[in-house]
Design a protein that fits this description.
By secondary structure, the chain is an alpha/beta fold. It has helices spanning 43-46, 77-83, 103-116, 130-140, 155-165, 190-207, 228-232, 279-283, 331-345, 370-382, 408-417, 427-431, 447-454; strands spanning 5-10, 16-17, 33-38, 92-96, 121-125, 147-151, 169-173, 210-215, 235-240, 247-255, 263-269, 272-275, 294-301, 304-316, 324-327, 352-358, 390-392, 395-396, 402-403, 422-426, 440-444. The longest helix has 18 residues, at 190-207.
């Protein structure tokens, strides 16, 4: 019988070392190496084999039989949008967010909605008792006879109960509390989290059980546990937003069955997370009118057009170097636009403090926001107001030109729906536009033309 050996495993990335290291050579994390006992394992187990195709021979891809499996709704339109149309039987989904952001509230509500459609649902909790889950379900009105609750952390017991019940949906809250008895490491360690995720993936794929895992996050907002966990699951959903804020944003970081550009907006109330279908109205609800440094930009999140408010504050600085801060947009984009404004427009803005914010807590990273950022910066620097009924979008090049962007018609339709009367857009998009609209469309070719058209 082979002896067990001791290795040191990085709790951030899963890198193994025979001796302790202060800094992980793989991910450069400090003090992340933890001693774990590795038992003698078979080759198949060391390779984390799923066993889904054992005994099969290679076949031409055209001869593979594929059965169309319909998705089933989660009962939430926003969650269905982010998932790509609903949950797929046999899929493994990871839901990640800060403590108190609403992960458990949303999952118990989804369980009740799926149970109301006629399918059995098993909710496994490793952090709370069944009485606590019952109290939360009462508060959220999520009680249903087909919703079963199990307080257990042993993976073997969970598998036995799941095979016995054969649920349509299995929820594990949370994956960091589940352990495999055959492994000697503690729950939440790299070995335990990785092995439990692989076993649950095998259970989901073999018996076509849609499985949702709730995961913890670290201080930097990344998923706790090894990075391989994100590669094992089919979908990774991240909650964005402060736990004390009213609204939550759900975004897909990885999705094998749909787009990763979709966004879901929820409002936290006493009855749990409620869908917010009209996101543009929420983001512009408290927008100040006729204030320098504020402009509205139509952006695209997946297939969904959104109107967001871009705010900029440019003030004189008595210290060098001046301060640059951005919230909701990449700071490197701000630095690039400041250089373009100073070189191509002649604005002496390099020695001023610059603060930029996308109101509403949403992150925008598409190039179409460039012209809106430039207008907001120039408006605050010159202390000139922008029209409250004007929206702006376009990409800016280093030569000061305004480049065309994609999906122009949805942006114009959304702005018109929200009551805007005027749109400043790239001249390249205006030339081939066939959309009939009541808005006044102003095409610009350079940053200087865009500023002249936007600033009163």
């Amino acid at each position: 019988m082979a002896k067990n050996k001791t290795v040191y495993v990085c709790q951030e990335c899963g890198h193994e070392s025979l001796k302790w290291l202060g800094k992980c050579p793989a991910c450069s994390a400090w003090n992340s190496m933890v001693e774990e006992i590795v038992q003698h394992e078979t080759a198949a187990r060391r390779g984390l084999s799923l066993g889904l195709s054992s005994g099969q021979n290679p076949v031409p891809i055209g001869e593979v039989n594929v059965e169309e499996t319909p998705r089933f709704s989660t009962g939430s339109g926003e969650l269905n949008r982010v998932l790509g149309g609903g949950l797929l039987p046999g899929s493994l989904t990871m839901i990640v967010g800060d403590p108190g952001v609403g992960k458990s509230s949303m999952t118990i509500k989804v369980c009740s909605n799926v149970a109301a459609q006629g399918g059995k649902v098993l909710y496994v909790t490793g952090e709370e008792s069944t009485q606590q889950i019952k109290l939360r379900a009462d508060r959220l009105s999520a009680i249903h006879e087909h919703l079963y609750v199990l307080s257990e952390t042993n993976l073997e017991v969970i598998e036995q109960q799941a095979l016995k019940l054969q649920p349509s949906l299995l929820v594990i809250d949370s994956i960091q509390t589940i352990f495999q008895p055959e492994l000697s490491s503690a729950p939440g360690s790299v070995s335990q989290v990785r092995e439990c995720a692989v076993q649950l993936l095998k259970l989901a794929k073999s018996h076509f059980i849609a499985t949702c895992l709730v995961g913890h996050v670290l201080k930097d907002g990344s998923l706790a546990g090894p990075r391989t966990l994100e590669h094992i699951v089919d979908t990774v959903l991240y909650f964005e937003g402060d736990r004390n804020a009213q609204y939550r944003i759900l975004r897909a970081i990885k999705n094998r069955f749909g787009s990763t550009n979709e966004l879901g907006l929820f409002e936290m109330r006493n009855e749990g997370l409620i869908d917010v279908p009209d996101a543009s109205k929420i983001f512009l609800a408290e927008r100040p009118l006729d204030v320098p440094g504020s402009i509205v930009v139509p952006t695209i999140e997946g297939t969904r057009p959104l109107l967001v408010e871009v705010q900029a504050l440019v003030s004189s600085s008595s210290f060098m170097p001046p301060r640059r801060a951005a919230d909701g947009v990449d700071i490197k984009r701000i630095q690039l636009l400041l250089a373009v404004l100073e070189k191509r427009v002649g604005m002496s803005i390099g020695a001023a403090d610059v603060y930029v914010k996308v109101a509403g807590g949403i992150n925008v990273d598409e190039p179409a926001i460039d012209l809106g950022l430039a207008v907001a910066l120039a408006s605050s620097f010159r202390n000139c107001q922008t029209s409250a009924n004007t929206a702006v979008f376009g990409e800016i090049g280093l030569a000061g030109e305004v480049r065309a962007v994609t999906q122009v018609e949805p942006r114009i339709r959304e702005a018109e729906r929200m009551g805007f009367k005027r749109m400043i857009l790239p001249q390249g998009n205006l030339k081939g536009l066939l959309l009939k609209t009541g808005m006044k469309l102003v095409g610009v070719e350079t940053v200087q033309e865009g500023l002249d058209a936007a600033l009163d």
